Amino acid sequence: MTAGGSGVGTSNSRDEAKEPAVPSERIAAGAHFPSAAGIGSPRVKAYVAIWQGFIGSLMIFVGSIGAGWIANGSPMIRHPLVIALRTEGWGVTTSTILLTAGAMLLVRSWLRLGQRLKDWGPGSVRSVVVAVAAWAAPMMFAVPIYSRDVYAYTGQGRLVLEGQNPYTAGISSLSNWFALGADPAWAEAKTPYGPYFLWLARWVVGITNAQPDFSVLLFRVLAAGGVLLCVIYVPKLAELHGINPGRALWIAVANPLFLISFIASAHNDALLVGLAVAGMYFAATGRHITGLLLVTASIGIKPITVLLLPFIGLMWAGPAANWTRKFLFWGATAAISFGVLAVSGIPYNLGFGWAWAILDPTPGYTAFSPSGFLSQQVDVIANLLGLPGGTVASGLRTLLKWTGMALVVVLMFRGDYSRLVRRAALAFAAVVMLAPIIQPWYILWFIPLLAVTGIRDDWQIKCLYVAVTFFVAFGAQDQLSVLSFVELNVKASSLSYVVAVGFAIYLMVLDVHTRRLLIRSTPGELLRRLEQRLRRSE
């Protein structure tokens, strides 16, 4: 099933419960999946959800003008309409509602798209691609939302352009750095990004002369390139594993957290993910060097994808490799990848500065990470017992972090060769989910690899629904840009919280369509099933 007879990607679709196992050859040939309804065109029905999502994305675009992050040096802040939306109570309130409601409408549209394409027959990939394009288009021109990291990218590009090293100097060393729009909390921080992204940042700043709005647009174009790589290679990698390509693309790329984080926020993680997915596809189809170089390029964007190298090495070693051969290919994989990165650090004297991001991670924790949440509870309990709660909690976070790394080692040494991509996805997930700090877009690092190897239509997909909805709702209220002097009847973050929670309750309880995704059977359906069983027993 793979080039060179390597056998990677031959796992069947048992990972997608309630779907028949379909050979990848049949998927590639456009084989039809059985239709439960038997009537109607899923593609026609899909456009209803696509249009609804487009409206949601337009609402996000309009709302971002009054509640998104605008750089101090942007000429936009002097436009009369922008001034009204950002300084008048009605403008901030309207923008907050539009931004939050638009994001939640996009969540509903994504869920409904999956329901309307539930049979995932021919044309489903095309429908999902159309949805991705339609939903991303308005965000390409929105004011940055959910994060202002993109402004830090401009600052780091300026550092390289001016001959400074972003691995040793923060953007606060730049003249007039505050006008760039970056978060002051990171003004003196060293960059956690790889040399290739710093090259790209320098290129962007060289073209735009660090003008913040044009810089954001170019960084979005780069992020869109990463999204495009996912659109191309997620279906291919899914077919390789006998997983429906349309469903995998819907899970991985069409989900609103992916589009908001990678298009509206313009995170460079889009390139990281796109290059990683492409690299895993080439490696799994026997083109190991190409795959290795693509994953190395991903590391050059952000070093976290170094976790994929051991699994690339195992693919290269082959299914019949003994332990000596595996260790030799692990060594060759590391030597080639790190050798390329070493040479890549020569321009602009960047060296191996990116390695600090792995060896010296950001301190602290986020309360919504499993590690952070558990440590908070342990802190309280330990204090009640007269123990040093802070020390115990810190120890727990450290233990969980190293447990994640231990799981990577276990997955390197144990498991079927045919499930190497799945093992890589689980290793990635273990490190992210057990780390003390999780940003909303971090889960997008491993979701595509899980999607292409199978996310079952049971608790697995429900967990994804919950995670995506939570992070979309959380980001809307957590990352609002509201001037301190604006007088509001209700705090903007509180208003966003109410709108998001209200919409989430609507999706789970009131919406007759989406509530079935979490609650499979309504009370009426349960009664009908009970009556049927009673009749059969008579």
TrEMBL record:
Stretches for region Disordered: 1-24
UniProt keyword Transmembrane present: yes
Location, primary (coarse class): membrane
Positions of transmembrane segments: 48-70, 90-111, 123-146, 217-235, 256-283, 289-315, 327-346, 394-413, 425-447, 459-476, 488-509
Keyword Membrane attached: yes
Family assignment from sequence similarity: Belongs to the MptA/B family.
Name the record gives this protein: Polyprenol phosphomannose-dependent alpha 1,6 mannosyltransferase MptB
Source organism per UniProt: Arthrobacter methylotrophus
Gene behind the chain: mptB
